[in-house]
């Protein structure tokens, strides 16, 4: 393992008084802390130690919590062709999110993200590349675009829209995602489209959607103002760090009780436990059972929030209502065609829950391998009234939870939350605790009816792009800002398929003549092979480095003005402050060039603001509706981006409202806020309903369901249970789960390989193994181990479901749709009690040794999402890593030391 | 100096010096004539044909007597200030119970010294030294829970900080332990050495 060691510097320059100051937000996790960028020419004098001599107005040495520049927060970049000092530090003046200027390790290192020819960012993509004789060769924009467009057009004409596959980031700024989806969905109009983290265009949290909850309804304040907070499948200290330190920690200090449902105990959970929290350390995938049991205990004791349920839960008639059209055409209804989820209200749900043998606390505790007392304790904390007063309960979930049993878990938590009265009041909320920042803005509708895939029932299901590709139907793969292969389960099998369709196809470009290149690539597509085009900031291996025929260099954070919202829907402008490398262009511009060459109209934007302004009206229905900011901006004679710039790091929370009389803009603190009253409506100028372009949707004060009330849903274990039983470790296998660490969290695309400090902390793939499991296998910390399996289940076919059980795992298995792959990867062992006995926990996405190779490639049979956290494997020692003797990198100290 | 003269590659003090002094190659080259500078043995270009052990300057840093090896008790940090008595100079030296550490001195290479000031936002790490099995950490910081690995040059175990906890370079002369330099920038300073 070769590491470039981080060399600790003992100097960092202070920005001078006259440095340019720009605002931005962190590029990484969804919390999106506010940052300030200080910029001054290298030829100019640095700031001095006296307050009067530096841009911070602080005397140095400074005090705790004051502005300070760590050496890693300084960089030298090019701005307008001239070298400038760049300092990126958390904004001490921000009023929201990272109040008092807190920051994560990722955000703290943002300055190193910016392109500089002298740092490890020097391999940023700078010119378009076309693969000729196996080598990616620089080419002009015009020619590269023409090659991609000509082959794309040919594939569309000859093989149809579904042969043109598009896999794209969902989050990398509103301007880019709008352009990409306008191109993909409105113009190409392909069902072979999905985002970076899912095989098909489906919701991440089906249970939330079907019950009526938005993923990001809560305000960050809500997470600290509950009395009981339940956290499922994540440690927010790892994944929403500053939310934890700025909101949850103060809540705990005020007596908030916290329950964590998680097989692991990391730093945040350890802190919670130290402060008297309850840690339910379940086996992977057993969440549904434990939640069903907790809910049962609550109901048996009569601790449910009857007033809330009476007012806000759909009864039998409401569950079936739909204003004439019925709910038939909603995703909720088609999923419930089988009658598996829909209830007639609370009593019906209760009856169902009490009937399920698996929700008996003893049985659930056994399967989850936890102490049954924890189920009773959790029920008390969540719902038992104390002195006649109900606790204010909030619940947050994230991927460890909803990527384990996607539909079952999200249904179960929605029902539990509702029964506890969580969901629509300050400090009583339900939402997600992670994900990327919300930078998605749809520019077209998904053509579901073109999908070749159908579940039993009425509707077609969004196409599983992996299975479609696996079956050889994708002839043109357009990949934007994602690795595709490593990010999907069964990675090694998927890579082999790419190899077969792209590299092993006889039609390979051998000439630098444009016409010949186009002809060859067309032949490849026609012969059953696949052509790959790739937009990214770095050349990713293998999607770019091995497979792409054409590569377009993208400009990113800090190089172009972009807009995006965070996990409480707070919109900010991420300002440009340095030059993009070479000829790199923002993704919206690459799309615009390609679209025009394809002959599509409506892609003539001149700058980023124009894209945002066009996108605004399509945002109006969404949770981050920013249309009214544009309206206000235009009334004030400004552009949308100008108006956003004025709002700095405070930004504004979507959906936005505008009072035409007072000229005031209003954000929305939370969605589903059942406590919003006349006073707020009057302030917004909406007391008689929405005025002019304002739109005040149901989600503001009610829930996203057919009635505005919550659908209380069943969450049958049986839909998932057969897979779980089949998968459960046999003989010397262990559960194999995966996830991220704070140090590399939604930043893996540019930090882990390019920031020496992060490379030194995590120099290679790693896996946590419980001391008992390690001892049995003779494994010590810092040993190299191999994790392997000869039963990675892969659902390989695109099928039309006819009978109710067609997509059930055991049926797929019986009917030959599941293939068992072999896979093996290596990692550095960390022997630690932070992970549960019987459970290995590995890095979620190592580029060379993707742990997804061992996770199941069997999408959730209802939602179509992958359950990425589920896998099993064996582990054995293969040697020792250098870190056993060398102390300069890595750390084997457990993350739960408090 | 005896503790640092070993040529055993695996010995952490040497590895430590190598690591520390990488950042100061400039000083190493340019030094040698500076008056009153302390020296440590380091390997330059380790593993290459140019490998050599030589005395290097730890230029500008004071050489300060901070402890006597014989008086250090396992797991009981001793506090001192370094490199001056100004802001954010609080530091500690600790003998970590015979567990070898990067940059450790003493016969067991278990004596290390670190800044007490969290490099994230300057939180105080006093009283946060912990030993669990063979692991030695400082943290969680009371402000935002950063934790540092004292066996591995103060690298972050978990938390918010964007650089390691500054480790103090130590020299041993007989029973005396001297602080002679710092790896990394102390929180709140733009230079460790301020006039």
Features:
heterodimer, A: 898 residues, alpha/beta, Immunoglobulin-like, Rossmann fold, Dimethylsulfoxide Reductase, domain 2, 4 domains, seven-stranded mixed beta sheet, six-stranded mixed barrel, 29 helices, 29 strands, 28% helix, B: 195 residues, mainly beta, Rieske Iron-sulfur Protein, 2 domains, four-stranded antiparallel beta sheet, three-stranded antiparallel beta sheet, 2 helices, 12 strands, disordered N terminus
CATH-assigned homologous superfamily of the largest domain in chain B: Rieske [2Fe-2S] iron-sulphur domain
> What order do the SSEs of chain B take from the amino end to the carboxyl end, as H and E?
HHEEEEEEEEEEEE
Average pLDDT number of chain B: 78
Largest sheet of chain B: 4 strands, antiparallel
Structure description:
- The complex is a heterodimer of chains A (898) and B (195).
- Chain A is built from 29 helices and 29 strands.
- Chain A is of the alpha/beta class and 898 residues long.
- Chain A has four domains: 20-114, Sandwich (Immunoglobulin-like), CATH 2.60.40.4210; 129-203 and 439-562, Rossmann fold (3-Layer(aba) Sandwich), CATH 3.40.50.740; 217-432, Dimethylsulfoxide Reductase, domain 2, CATH 3.40.228.10; 722-884, Barwin-like endoglucanases (Beta Barrel).
- In chain A, the strands form seven sheets. Chain A has a seven-stranded mixed sheet. Chain A has a six-stranded mixed barrel with strand order 24-28-25-27-26-29.
- The longest helix of chain A has 19 residues, at 141-159.
- Chain A is globular.
- The two termini of chain B are 28 Å apart.
- Chain B has helices at residues 12-22, 25-30, and strands spanning 39-44, 52-57, 64-68, 78-81, 90-95, 111-115, 129-132, 135-138, 147-149, 155-158, 167-173, 176-183.
- Chain B folds into two domains: 2-57, no CATH class; 64-183, Rieske [2Fe-2S] iron-sulphur domain (Rieske Iron-sulfur Protein, 3-layer Sandwich), CATH 2.102.10.
- The radius of gyration of chain B is 16 Å and the shape is globular.
- Chain B has a four-stranded antiparallel sheet with strand order 7-8-9-10, with no helix packed on it. Chain B has a three-stranded antiparallel sheet with strand order 3-12-11. In chain B, strands 4-5-6 form a three-stranded antiparallel sheet, with no helix packed on it.
- Chain B has 195 residues and is mainly β.
- The chains are: A alpha/beta (898), B mainly beta (195).
- The interface between A and B is large, with 58 and 59 residues.
């Amino acid at each position: 393992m070769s590491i470039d060691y981080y060399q600790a510097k003992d100097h960092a320059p202070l920005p001078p008084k006259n440095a340019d100051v720009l605002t931005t937000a962190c590029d990484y996790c969804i919390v999106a802390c506010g940052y300030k960028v200080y910029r001054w020419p290298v030829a100019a004098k640095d700031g001095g130690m006296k307050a009067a001599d530096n841009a911070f107005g602080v005397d140095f040495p400074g005090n705790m919590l004051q502005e300070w520049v760590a050496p890693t927060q300084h960089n030298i970049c090019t701005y307008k062709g001239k070298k400038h000092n760049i300092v990126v530090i958390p904004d001490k003046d921000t009023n929201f999110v990272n109040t008092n200027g807190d920051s994560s390790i990722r955000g703290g290192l943002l300055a190193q993200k910016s392109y500089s020819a002298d740092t490890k960012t020097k391999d940023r993509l700078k010119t378009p590349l076309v693969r000729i004789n196996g080598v990616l060769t620089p080419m002009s924009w015009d020619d590269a675009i023409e090659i991609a467009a000509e082959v794309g057009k040919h594939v569309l004409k000859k093989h149809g829209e579904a042969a043109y596959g598009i896999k794209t980031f969902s989050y990398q700024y509103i301007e880019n995602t709008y352009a990409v989806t306008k191109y993909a969905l409105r113009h190409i109009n392909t069902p072979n489209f999905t985002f970076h983290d899912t095989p098909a265009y489906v919701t991440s949290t089906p249970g939330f959607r079907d019950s009526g909850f938005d993923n990001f309804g809560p305000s960050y304040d809500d997470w600290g103002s509950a009395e009981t907070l339940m956290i499922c499948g994540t440690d927010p200290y790892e994944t929403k760090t500053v939310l934890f330190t700025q909101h949850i920690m103060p809540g705990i200090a005020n007596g908030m009780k916290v329950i964590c449902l998680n097989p692991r105990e990391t730093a945040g959970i350890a802190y919670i436990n130290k402060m008297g929290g309850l840690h339910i350390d379940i086996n992977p995938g057993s969440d549904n059972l434990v939640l069903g049991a907790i809910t049962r205990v609550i109901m048996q004791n009569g601790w449910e929030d009857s007033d809330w349920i009476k007012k806000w839960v759909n009864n039998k008639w409401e569950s079936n209502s739909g204003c004439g059209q019925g709910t038939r055409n909603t995703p909720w209804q088609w999923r419930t065609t089988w009658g598996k989820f829909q209830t007639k209200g609370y009593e019906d749900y209760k009856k169902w829950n009490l009937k399920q043998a698996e929700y008996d606390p003893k049985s659930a505790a056994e399967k989850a391998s936890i102490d049954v007392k924890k189920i009773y304790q959790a029920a008390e904390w969540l719902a038992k009234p104390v002195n006649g007063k109900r606790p204010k309960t909030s619940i947050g979930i994230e991927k460890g939870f909803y990527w384990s049993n996607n539909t079952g878990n999200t249904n179960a938590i929605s029902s539990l939350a509702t029964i506890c009265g969580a969901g629509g009041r300050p400090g009583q909320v339900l939402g997600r605790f992670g994900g990327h920042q919300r930078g998605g803005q749809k520019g077209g509708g998904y053509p579901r009816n073109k999908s070749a895939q159908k579940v039993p029932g009425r509707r077609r299901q969004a196409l599983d792009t992996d299975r479609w590709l696996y079956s050889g139907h994708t002839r043109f793969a357009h990949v934007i800002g994602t690795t595709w292969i490593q990010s999907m389960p069964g990675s090694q099998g998927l890579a082999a398929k790419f190899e077969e369709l792209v590299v092993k196809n006889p039609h390979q470009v051998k000439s630098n003549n444009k016409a010949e290149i186009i002809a060859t690539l067309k032949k490849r597509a026609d012969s059953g092979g696949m052509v790959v085009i790739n937009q990214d900031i770095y050349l990713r291996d293998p999607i770019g480095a091995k497979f792409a025929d054409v590569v377009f260099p993208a400009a990113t954070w800090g190089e172009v003005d972009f807009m995006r919202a965070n996990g409480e829907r707070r919109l900010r402008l991420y300002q440009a402050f340095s030059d993009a490398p070479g000829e790199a262009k923002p993704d919206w511009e690459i799309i615009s060039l390609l679209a025009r060459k394809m002959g599509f109209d409506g892609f003539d934007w001149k700058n980023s603001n124009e894209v945002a302004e066009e996108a605004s009206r399509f945002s109006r229905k969404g949770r981050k509706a920013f249309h009214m900011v544009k309206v206000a901006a235009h009334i004030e004679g400004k552009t949308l981006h100008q108006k956003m710039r004025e709002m700095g790091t405070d930004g504004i929370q979507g959906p936005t409202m505008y009072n035409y009389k007072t000229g005031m803009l209003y954000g929305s603190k939370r969605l589903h806020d059942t406590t919003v009253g006349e006073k707020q409506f009057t302030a917004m100028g909406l007391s008689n309903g929405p005025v002019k372009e304002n739109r005040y949707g149901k989600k503001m004060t009610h829930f996203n369901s057919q009635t505005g009330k919550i659908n209380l849903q069943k969450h049958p274990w049986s839909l998932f249970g057969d897979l779980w039983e089949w998968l459960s470790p046999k003989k010397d296998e262990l559960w194999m789960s995966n996830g991220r660490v704070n140090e590399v969290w939604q930043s893996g695309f540019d930090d882990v390989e390019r920031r020496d400090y992060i490379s030194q902390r995590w120099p290679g793939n790693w896996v946590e193994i419980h001391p008992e499991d390690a001892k049995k296998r003779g494994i010590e910390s810092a040993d190299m181990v191999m994790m392997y399996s000869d039963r990675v289940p892969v659902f390989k076919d695109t099928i039309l479901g006819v009978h109710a059980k067609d997509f059930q795992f055991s049926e797929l298995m019986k009917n030959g749709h599941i293939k068992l792959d072999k896979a093996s990867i290596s990692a550095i062992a960390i022997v630690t009690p932070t992970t549960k006995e019987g459970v290995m926990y590995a890095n979620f996405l190592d580029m060379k040794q993707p742990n997804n190779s061992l996770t199941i490639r069997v999408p959730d049979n209802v939602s179509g999402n992958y359950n990425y956290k589920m896998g099993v494997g064996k582990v054995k020692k293969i040697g020792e890593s250098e870190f056993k003797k060398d102390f300069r990198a890595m750390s084997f100290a457990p993350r739960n030391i408090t | 100096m005896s503790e640092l003269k070993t040529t055993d590659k695996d010995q952490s003090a040497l590895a430590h010096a190598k690591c520390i002094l990488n950042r100061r190659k400039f000083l190493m080259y340019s030094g040698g004539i500076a008056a009153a500078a302390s020296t440590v043995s380091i390997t330059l270009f380790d593993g290459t044909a140019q490998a050599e052990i030589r005395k290097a300057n730890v230029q500008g840093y004071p050489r300060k007597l901070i402890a006597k090896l014989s008086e250090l008790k396992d797991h009981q940090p001793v506090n001192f200030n370094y490199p001056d008595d100004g802001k954010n100079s609080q530091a500690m030296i600790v003998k970590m119970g015979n567990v070898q550490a990067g940059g450790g001195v003493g016969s067991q290479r278990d004596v290390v010294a670190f800044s007490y000031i969290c490099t994230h936002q300057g939180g105080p790490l006093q009283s946060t030294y912990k030993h669990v099995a063979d692991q030695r950490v400082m943290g969680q910081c009371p402000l935002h829970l950063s934790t540092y690995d004292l066996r591995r040059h103060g690298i972050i175990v978990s938390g918010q900080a964007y650089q390691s906890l500054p480790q103090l370079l130590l020299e041993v002369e007989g029973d005396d332990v001297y602080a002679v330099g710092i790896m990394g920038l102390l929180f709140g300073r733009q230079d460790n050495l301020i006039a």
